[in-house]
């Protein structure tokens, strides 16, 4: 942690890569752990697919609305310290999370790689709709279209503008800090391939993950680790 503190203080261009483990301390379950989202239903990847949305919209809606929304969740110390770094150090953030907590914490220079659950729109007329309206009914009152959250589903691709913005951030970084992700989900995991050869990589996780040559691990609970950081 002392070495990480020194890295942060000396770095000129910090990029945080975050995943579901950043939000579990806020009460939002991750995906693949024993108590994760994917253990609550059979075939969850289908339920979060484009096919399900198009062919069985009610099934898609019930899974998303009942299992993915946590509107009372609040940013934890990890979100807050990262947000502070985005203000003080102009750090950048690329997150897999769709829960909006980085935004709630006031993070600047943020790429929500897989979108945001709280941005909802009508597939028929394109109008933006408050997520609370969506949680009451999947049908758009205005035109009768089916509403959907602006998240990337299975069988969908990352928007080119989002992908290019993330690649640019990574390629310009001199310090990459990975937190709360196993780096197994692509194309997010592939972003580190675009790093500079001089960039330092450090991951904070309770379990060891695969890192490129030269990467370092801090095997510690991320909450405890970020509590120790002075940002």
UniProtKB/TrEMBL annotation:
Query: Kind of enzyme, top EC level?
Result: transferase
Binding of Zn(2+): at which residues? 122, 125, 140, 143
Entry's Pfam families?
SIR2
Deacetylase sirtuin-type domain: from which residue to which, for each copy? 1-231
**EC number(s) given by UniProt:** 2.3.1.286
Q: Which residues form the active site?
A: 114
User: Which GO MF terms does the UniProt record name?
Assistant: histone deacetylase activity, NAD-dependent; metal ion binding; NAD+ binding
Protein name stated in the entry: protein acetyllysine N-acetyltransferase
Q: Which keywords annotate this record?
A: Metal-binding, NAD, Transferase, Zinc
**Lineage: superkingdom:** Bacteria
């Amino acid at each position: 942690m002392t070495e990480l503190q020194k890295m942060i203080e000396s770095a000129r261009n910090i990029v945080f890569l975050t995943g579901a483990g950043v939000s579990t301390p806020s009460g939002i379950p991750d995906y693949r752990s024993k108590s994760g989202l994917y253990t609550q239903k059979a075939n969850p990847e289908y339920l979060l697919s484009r096919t399900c949305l198009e062919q069985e919209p009610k099934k898609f809606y019930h899974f998303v609305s009942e299992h993915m929304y946590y509107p009372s969740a609040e940013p934890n110390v990890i979100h807050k310290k990262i947000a502070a770094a985005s203000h003080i150090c102009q750090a950048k953030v690329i997150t897999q999370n769709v829960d909006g907590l980085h935004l709630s914490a006031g993070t600047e220079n943020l790429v929500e790689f897989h979108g945001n659950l709280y941005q909802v729109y009508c597939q028929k007329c394109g109008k933006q709709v408050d997520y609370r309206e969506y949680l009451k009914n999947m049908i758009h009152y205005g035109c009768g279209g089916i509403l959907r959250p602006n998240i990337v589903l299975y069988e969908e691709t990352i928007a080119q503008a989002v992908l290019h913005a993330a690649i640019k951030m990574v390629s310009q970084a001199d310090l990459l800090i990975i937190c709360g992700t196993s780096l197994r989900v692509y194309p997010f995991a592939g972003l580190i391939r675009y790093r500079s050869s001089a960039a330092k990589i450090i991951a904070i996780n309770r379990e060891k993950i695969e890192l490129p040559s030269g990467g370092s691990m801090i095997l510690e609970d991320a909450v405890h680790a970020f509590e120790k950081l002075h940002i």
